[in-house]
Amino acid sequence: MIELIQKETAFPTEGIIGCQGVAGAYSQIAADRMFPNGRKIFFKTFDAVFDAVKRGLCNYGMIPIENNSNGSVRAIQDLLRERGLFIVRSEKLCISHELLVKPGTRLEDIREIYSHEQALGQCSEFLKKFGDQVRIIPCLNTAIAARTVSESETNDKAAICSAACIELYGLKTLGMRIQNSDNNYTRFLCIAREPAVYPGADRISLILSAAHRPGALYEVLGKFAKLSINMLKLESVPITGRDFEFRFYIDIEASTREPKVMQMLAELEKECMDFRFLGNYTEI
Asked: What is the CATH number of domain 98-176?
């Protein structure tokens, strides 16, 4: 079992935080809330954020893991399993999308709409109104979409992004709160090189593969039930190269400060294939 660093101090409010995208990204908004005194650095891809944290260029990385209406970000799950970093905090951010255009652009002028695929999915009902007359173009980040529209030489493009991008990129809004649901939340994870556990941490994230036999997953879940541990998330993820075999992303409500919890984790590490402890942390 990995050796945990049990912190006795409060979670920090400063540091160098890596975010994917450019200024105005939702990851930056989440980072500003979690680290009000921190310095944010932007990277083109999620891979680059993970690499920057692993190499020590950033103290932390802020990454989205799931949206309550559009599901998990599979790429992040893969990176968490592969890169050996740890979750030290998480945050739920209410996401309100807007349709932004260059000044002078009318709704009927729009022929292309840019945004991240997660945002496009969260606004699918709104996008249906445009029919086949408008191209929907996924891009790396919502704020990158806003910058693309701002730098365009034509007035036929729009971006789905945060209201923060209005002032940043000199745009105007043609639609506010265009997401499918007002109850639209995205969970962001704060990742670090070391598995630090801060006071009050009550959520544990794991990735594991149960043996490919009847009852194997039942045995894993039985360990949680035996300790009266509440399971917050159970998601199956296909294993690339295997014939319909799966690994599981699991969140439970527990603390590594409890000896019985540590013993259970040690048993899971011994008994399960591809076991990965991701962290014990607080969600705000």
From this structure: 3.40.190.10
Contact 186, 67 (CB under 8 A): yes
CB 119 within 8 A of CB 166: no
Q: Residues of 130-147 as b/e, b for ≥16 C-beta within 10 angstroms?
A: eeeebeeeebbbbbbbbb
Range(s) for CATH 3.30.70.260 in the chain? 203-281
* CATH architecture type of domain 12-94+184-196: 3-Layer(aba) Sandwich (3.40)
Name residue, tokens 């799950």: 77
Retrieve residue 19's tokens.
């975010």
Burial of 56 (0-12, 13-18, 19+ CB in 10 A): exposed
Q: Which residues is 273 bridged to in the sheet?
A: 209
Element (H, E) at 113: strand 112-115
pLDDT digits (tens, 9 = 90+) for 1-19: 678 999 999 999 999 999 9
Instruction: Indicate the SS3 state at residue 255.
Output: coil
**CATH class belonging to 203-281:** alpha beta
Q: How many other C-beta atoms lie within 10 A of the C-beta of residue 124?
A: 13
Q: What is the CA radius of gyration of the chain?
A: 21
* Amino acid letter for position 162: S
Return the structure tokens found at 174. Answer: 């043609």
pLDDT digits (tens, 9 = 90+) for 175-196: 999 999 999 999 999 999 999 9
Q: How many CB atoms lie within 10 A of CB 220?
A: 20
Residue matched to tokens 């992004």: 161
Q: Which residues make up the CATH 3.40.190.10 domain(s) of the chain?
A: 12-94+184-196, 98-176
